[in-house]
Structure prediction request, 619 residues.
Amino acid sequence: MNAIPATNVRENGTASIKLTINGKEVVAKKGATVLEAALNTGIYIPTLCYDPDLKPYGGCRLCVVEIEGMRGLVSSCTTPVTNGMVVYTETPKVNQSRRITMELITVNHHGDCLVCAKNQDCELLKVARYLGMEQNHVDRLRKNTQVFPVDDSHPAFIRDLNKCILCAKCVRACHEIVCHDAIDIAFRGNSAKVATFGDKPIAESICKSCGECVVRCPTGALVPKWEKTPTQEVKTICPYCGVGCSIYLGVRDNKIVSVRGDSESPVNRGTLCVKGRWGYDFVSHTERLTTPLIRIPGVPRDAGQNMKTHDVFREAGWDEAIELVAKRLRDFVSNGVGVIASAKCTNEENYVMQKFARAVLATNNVDHCARLCHAPTVAGLVQSFGSGAMTNSINDIGDAACILAIGTNTTENHPVLGYRIARAVNNGGKLIVANPYEIELCRFASIWLQHSPGTDVALLMGMMRVIVDEGLLDSAFIRERCENFDAFGESLKDFDLDFVERITKVPQSKIVEAARMFATNSPAAILYAMGITQHSHGTDNVLATANLAMLTGNVGKPSTGVNPLRGQNNVQGACDMGALPNVYPGYQAVNDSAIQKKFEAAWGCSLSPSPGLTLVDMI
Prediction:
């Protein structure tokens, strides 16, 4: 065991560094920069290019400090702390340098602060005030510079390069967070500017519209078109895909006027996609139903297609509507009625819906959209691991040494997770994409297995055959944690590589390379979506992914496991709450008499012992 050097201290189990800033002793984490150490201690250092989510850049040169033993001024955002370091952030030399730098930045900035959308929220203005630069002094410094046309081609935000200070935050966010190349700094000298490929309007570029550039812009160069200052913020979860990004909705006059990502969330860390950032106009849409509607007597059932809503239905109060529905439902109690729950509802709502079906309507005919997308996930993962859910958290995935993405177009269907996968690759991780189609992740992949549609089992079994034949399996894990390995080994005999290549159309060499890569780069994670579940053999596909993870010991550890990517924002919750025809909450079988009695005692009613109809059977 190696001893920790005496100059290091430990706080919360993390090696730390002691230094002095402006005569104050400071403790910082090992690897932190001087700027981070100062900010964490409450010592302000002005900067326009620093962002905690981006790599140190040192572009604006406003964060310069003096450090004993170092020549000249150094940028605090790029200088790591060392033991015994003595830093001065407010010396005459430092302040003079900052003022000169700020003057050079401001000269090329078009000053229309009074009509700017960022007025009073502009980082450039805040820094100028901190440095004691008055508005009239700034105005005198400005000269006639090149005037750029304002780009308002995008439906969600405006680009005004006349207010750009070339801090490169937008470019770096696009490259480092989204791993995209929609914009970059183009041209030279006074003509330098942030531009798209070919200098086209942003709406004609490959921009993903994620808004990561907009939220990080320190000036009015990038501003949302429709946002207003909210009077309150409400923390919630994005209503779209199954990633579960945490967001804050800004509310004003009972309407959503702004959206921001939750930087404290381990799922998205403040990052959002195009839907999560901008897609909330439906909440206050004029065509949204806000009151119950009751069909007008005498209107034919097929008349609705050619008539307006108010000609077919009349508005009703909630009491009248609920009473009517309850009266009608009495005629269909037991198996004459079906209940369709929703993956867009909360856990509590789904729990109440399935309980209403079973305890009030006396039927197990309750289901939801998972039937059409991830029912094989529930069946396969419950059989393999006892739970129909991801074995690991989304926060784990970025630290995986190898990722197998099969049957998922992640950057399109789960964009924020797609960013995380791309960052993992850029940080040295391996990515294996198994998909019949060339998706965006293929450009990040070490290997692309372009197998024929419907041959997922053969492909995965072929990989496992290689792993077993070459002794790359985790024998200790299998011995201690797995069952029926001998029978599984027998099943692999039918999947020699000649057969697998003929079935999948994937060259043997690629199958071998992928198998070796997955087995030898630990921790390794498997991600999949509806590309492998929406098959007649979808459950077998899921079982094959589980077997691959267990074969290599990639289960029950950080950054490993089998991780289904759900389509809706609460498919997992709806399944967990029992909105399925064959299981109670917690995946407890309805045809198990002991479990049935437990729920009868809890709910105080008799329950049907027969599994109900699926969504497809109901229809």
